[in-house]
Each structure stands twice: as structure tokens, then as C-alpha cells.
Please model this.
Amino acid sequence: MLDGESKLSIKRAVYLAENAYLDGKLKYEQDFCEPIRKVSNYLNRMIELNHWEKYKTAKQIALCNFFFYPCNVNNQKIFDYDYSNEFPEDDWHYQLVSRTMKTHLGQCRSLPWTFKLFAEEMGADVYLAYAPRHCFLMYKDEDDLFPEDWVNVALTVQQYQPTFAIKDFFCIKDSAIIAGTYLTPLSDTQTIAMQLCDLAHAYHDKYKKYDDFTLKCVEKSLKHMEKNPNALLIKGKSLMAVLQRHLKQNGYKRDAYTDKIDAMSKKCWEALEATHWTQETPELRKKWKQSYHTVNEIKKNTQYIQK
Model:
């Protein structure tokens, strides 16, 4: 897709990555196409029955209702943050769209990516956007229903959140927004490039190593989305792993190959600095940890999306 050899499909890209992680246990038509098509058809009828055609953002309104309020098509079960202990903390299973579609539970990656797949099917102009260790959705407020030009949809707390609140909570610099690192709506090409980076992340989660595969993934990803701190961090760790393997083979001697890797690593860290990323600290990780208490505190101080 990124090479232009096949049509861009975020749904297909997500399926390919998750099917690899789950050792080929998914079925594209059954686990992705059928449920997404069913929901899309229902939401189009919802728009018609509620006479929401007058809104330019009718599809976005319908999607928010589907995710945030009990209805027949979601079996009276909203999409909510997953507090279960089914897997170890930070296990990649919590970030799988295929799991979220079945359980209606997810975390800061799987929830917005699930929303994005439904939006893609409906032809709704909804975009993924990132903050440090967080993912949310953005769409243009074409109906002037909100105080900002862009609506920020935070699925983990089922709310609209103003830009200043996201900047403050995630300690985002203005320079990072200007660079396009955070709070920037991703194109479909950039979204698929991000999925390729996530494939490398899932590979490391599964096999507990960085190597030529993770390097190949992020190098391709960075060609289409260069201001991606996660991809650059994985690239740096992958280069280090490749270097260590080479040194072990050549008796830990400096040669032309080690010089090449050193030069690549230097450029990688320079590129990371150019993103103006927010570097994590133990204090920030504690602040960002989504517990039941912190989510409820956020809900008290932000505005619900309602229609």
C-alpha cells in the first residue's frame, strides 16, 4: 500500500498486522468486514431516522452515539476503557482492534483505531491523532457545534476535550504541534505508516527483541511519517541490536559497518530531537496511567459529546 502497489485500506492494514500477531487466527471477512459493514449500515439508517442529514458531520455524530450510548447495534454495551486483568499490564493484546470490536473494551490505541475503521467504512472524515503514549480522534467542526475548529474525541473517557487540556495533561510543547508530531490529524497514508510502526512494536512485545525486522518496519514507516517519536525510538533500539550482533560476530572490532551504524544512530537521535517529543519521566508515566479513578476525574472536568 505504501509503495502504491495496492489500494490504501486501513482496515486491511490493521487485519494484516493483528493476524500476524495472533499467528493467523483471524478471518478477514468474519472478524473485520462483516461486523464493520453491519454497523455502518445501521448508523446510516440512524442518520436517516433522526433526520441528521442537515448536519455536515452527521456520520461523526452517529459514530459517537454508537460508541458512547447503549443501542441495539452495540447490544446495549458502550465502548469503554478496559480495566480487566486478562493479560499482563501493557500487554499488546489490549491494543488489538479485533479484540475491542468483540468485547467493546479497549485502551488508548485500540479504541480510536476501532472508531477509525468504522469511519473509513462510512466515508466519514475522521482522523487519528497522537499525544505522548496516547491516541485520539479529530474531525473538522463543519457545523459549528463546538468552540474550536477541530473536535478532539477522547474515546478512553468518552468525551470531547479542548486542545489546551490535551496540551496541558500530556505536557506537549507548541514546537511539537508545529512540527506535526502531536495533535495533528493523520492522512490515510500516515495512518498506515503508523500501523507499520505498531507492527514493529507488537513484534517486540511478542518476541522480546529488536532486530532487522523491526528496523525494516520503522524505516519504511518513517518515509511516510518522519515526525514519529515511537518509530525513531524503535529504530534507535533496532540499530543498537544490529550493531551488537555484528560486534559479537567480528570479535568486537571497529570496522566500516560499525561506523555506518554509528552514523545512522546519530541521525536517528537528531531526527528524534527534531520532533520536539515529550520525554517520559516516572512522574509523567504515573500521571498518564489510566486508572478507574483518573478516568472518572477527567470525566468530571470535560464536556460530553451529546446529540
Notes: The first strand starts at residue 80 and ends at 81.
